[in-house]
Amino acid sequence: MSAPGTVIPFGERLEAVFAAYGRLCVGLDPHASLLDQWGQPDSAEGLREFGLRVIEAAADRVGILKPQIAFFERHGAAGYAVLERLLAEARDAGMLVIADVKRGDIGSTVEAYGEAWLRRGSSLEADAMTISAYQGLGSIEQVMLAAEAGGKGLFVLAATSNPEASAIQRAVLQQSSRAGHTVAGAITQGVIGWNQSRSDAASRALGSVGVVFGATTDLRAAGIPTDVEPPRPGLPVLAPGFGHQGAEPGDLRARFGAYAAGVIANESRSLLSAGPDGIGDAIARRADEYGAVGA
Ligand SMILES: O=c1ccn([C@@H]2O[C@H](COP(=O)(O)O)[C@@H](O)[C@H]2O)c(=O)[nH]1
Fold this sequence. Notes:
Blueprint: H1 10-21, E1 24-28, H2 32-37, H3 44-58, E2 64-67, H4 70-73, H5 76-92, E3 96-103, H6 107-118, E4 128-131, H7 141-150, E5 153-159, H8 166-169, H9 183-197, E6 209-213, E7 237-239, H10 252-256, E8 263-267, H11 269-272, H12 275-293
Parallel strand pairs: 1-2, 1-8, 2-3, 3-4, 4-5, 5-6, 6-7, 7-8
Helix pairs in contact: 3-5, 3-12, 6-7
The ligand O=c1ccn([C@@H]2O[C@H](COP(=O)(O)O)[C@@H](O)[C@H]2O)c(=O)[nH]1 binds next to β8 and α11.
């Protein structure tokens, strides 16, 4: 147990979760159709009941929860109030919470997003957030520093799971120090470089800044070779695309290759569609299947 106020790097916390619970991450995506299936109204009350039941089923079975903020935002301020409660419940239950917010802007504005989602004591405090470096990796530098100071994590969109992303993410850079790299490859290398530049890099198995790689994505075609061992610290990889979008636990090693050890396998609809009575078993079964894949 660490002393109060001690900052434990996000990468270290993630490593501990992998060791205790494995790599499955439950996605909290309260689609209107799922609320209906769960017998809940498409309202803030419905979100609250749905969210509380998902957290109850997930706690002690998995160590990571990824709320998709869009489904709360569509209910306005009432949705955000529910989200605040659910974030606190999940964190109190000991889960690492990744807020899937995909924020990005000029640096001074991204800093404010970082404060909203990662500052200790913020009503929306999570353990990590997803972020876009479309305005340049430099635009998120202050957030990376603030996250590090608070023991928080970031997942930078690199090679996402949606097929229509490839035209942009596979485009080859003409200028910059990473000319010749794809956009996805340059972002990935930039994040790896950031983790390596931290003072404690050599002693860490995992860095605190990761990337988003879709489990449905051909990483090699996106300019990210998967047969070359990345340097330490290892790269956390938030990987949506398992379950509903088609990827299976058995695909993990072939898809991610040298990055497999850092993969957080997110599944949302495939688990949530088991309904309130089936979700606990669905999570436990899937957690076992990822466990069988190994590290
Ligand atoms: O590349 C990306 C980035 C994020 N997502 C998000 O993950 C979940 C996936 O949900 P499923 O129901 O398991 O398909 C959802 O919140 C997406 O917004 C992604 O799919 N791909």
